[in-house]
Amino acid sequence: MKKQLFIVLILSLLSTAAMAQNKNYQTCKTKMDQLINSINAMYVDTVDFDPMVDKAISAMLKELDPHTAYIQKKDVQAMTEPLQGTFDGIGVTFQLIKDTINVMEVIINGPSEKVGLLAGDKIVKVDDTLACGDKITNDWVRKHLRGDKGSKVKVSVKRGRNPELIDFVITRGAIPMYSINVSFMADETTGYVKLERFAATSTKELTDALKKLKAQGMQDLILDLRGNGGGYLNVAFEICDQFIAGKKIIVYTDNFRKTGEKYYSEKEGLFEEGKLIVLVDENSASASEITSGCIQDWDRGLVIGRRTFGKGLVQKPLRLIDQSEVRLTISHYYTPTGRCIQKPYNDGLDAYYKDLQTRANNGELYTADKIKFPDSLKYKTPHGRTVYGGGGIMPDIFIPLDTTRYSTLYNEIVRKGIFGNFVVNYLENSRDNMKKQYPTFEDFEKNFKISDSFYKEFMDFAKKEGVSDSAAFKFSNYAESFLKTNKGKLDSLFTSAKDLDMQTLDTMFHNYVVKNYNEATRLRNESHAGEYIKDYLRYEIARGLYGYGDAYRIFLETDDTFQQALAVMHDKKIFKKFKVYSGKNGKSDSEDDE
């Protein structure tokens, strides 16, 4: 009853930002003011309004749309940090391994690097307080290592085999959270940039990356937006402005009040000429869809990958009186051809959030033929390409999800942190020798391979950590699952003790267990898991030696979407087929001479 009551009370808190959407608005607002005042003045017991109103806000906003959200005061900073681009701290990434803080990377030019902290160091004490044991959690580490800019923290670390602890006094500073951590020349003429979010610093990061790659000979570009869930709308059109020549509409917003805005390309961009490919997948959303949709709509580049998430709603952050925040949907956004790529949410939030699972079940992640768009959502680009709205950005070239890479064995090793644990110990003894043998990442990438003996050493280590190299057979689990799955059938077959046919029951149970164990074995994917385990080992070792930015390239070596994009980049026929504009002499590739 209290929950239902307070669902409506929050209307009074939002009154300053609200507009009269219907004739009942003022009556409802007055009624709620009257009710909350009466509870405060007359209710039989003392009322703690804070948790009740928090729950009421969350419940009420669920009635609006999937992306309007309430953020409590204590969570606001953590939610906004990735988009602001900085936070205050000591400048390391860490991993808890056996209740010990292991430094995985030291951020370049950060406070820790300046005093000499190194990847591989183990932080044993923080301000003379023991920093290992059961009490140490990720939250504990953040609470004790983060702090206001200019404040100091003392850390004592164990380095390599040195039995003596080394003390460092670190002055906390502003730590950049880069949205571009990976950019490099994929071949002699093709640059690659992975944009992980659309943050406040993303435009500068992109321009810096483009300048660096151009200086290295870049003529064409692969922009990777896979897994990029979006960010700031204004950053999306600033990013697009780097690729679109002249004054062209990039995106526009609209709502029932007709208070939307239009955003145009205006500045001279750094990459208005040259072939452009944008990589997307089912987790590319919002600003990623604005960017890929704009590039597709103006025939500026090819979009390769899988259909994007389908988020075409704009949120405005509203800071409430207690410093909590509501991210309120205020508009739909539309691509240049008029597409609203927001997928439907009329069937309820549960169905909306399960959409990606539904796509998988329907086969849409594995074949483009399973993806159906109604003709009413069909649009045409200036060069005559057919594009669709109403459900994400459909790529020009579809790359199916590679199911052969799935392995529960590999996933278990990742989930349990076995890779990090093993590599930290390995580099503790061999870091110096590795750096001498492979002074640059390029040396490492070309020459370092995981030998069979090294792989066996790792798998032996994983087994000691509780990982089985074959599908586990737990009889009690199968028996419990059998009873739950076949409850109705069993009850109909065996209605009394006279009907208890043990042979029939035994056959049913045997077939069920064999079928499910065979499926568990298939998902374990032991025949191919070794390939992916070796890749991840190379990645972790490279990350420990050279940092994430270089190490990520290990994954791209076997990334089908990236490899196909690289092949397409050098195939003029495909760019001509899609009549994609390259910017060369003001012509499309379809107009280039042979």
Your description of this structure?
By secondary structure, the chain is α+β, with helices and mostly antiparallel strands. The chain is built from 23 helices and 21 strands. The strands form five sheets. Strands 3, 4, 5, 6, 7 and 8 form a six-stranded antiparallel sheet that branches. Strands 10-11-12-15-16-21 form a six-stranded mixed sheet, sandwiched between helices. Strands 1, 13, 14, 17 and 18 form a five-stranded antiparallel sheet that branches. A hairpin with a 2-residue loop joins strand 3 (92-97) and strand 4. The longest helix is centred in the C-terminal third of the chain and has 23 residues, at 502-524. The chain is globular. It starts with a helix and ends in a 17-residue tail after the last helix.
Keywords:
alpha+beta; 21 strands; globular; disordered C terminus
- What's the overall average pLDDT, rounded? 85
* Largest beta-sheet characterization: 6 strands, antiparallel
Question: Residue ranges: pLDDT <50 for 5 or more in a row?
Answer: 1-20, 589-594
Number of strands: 21
Provide the β-strand percentage band: 15-25%
Radius of gyration, in Å, reads 28 Å
The gross shape turns out to be globular
- N-to-C CA distance: 74 Å
| Count, helices | 23
Helix and strand content put the structural class at alpha+beta
| Helix content bin | 40-55%
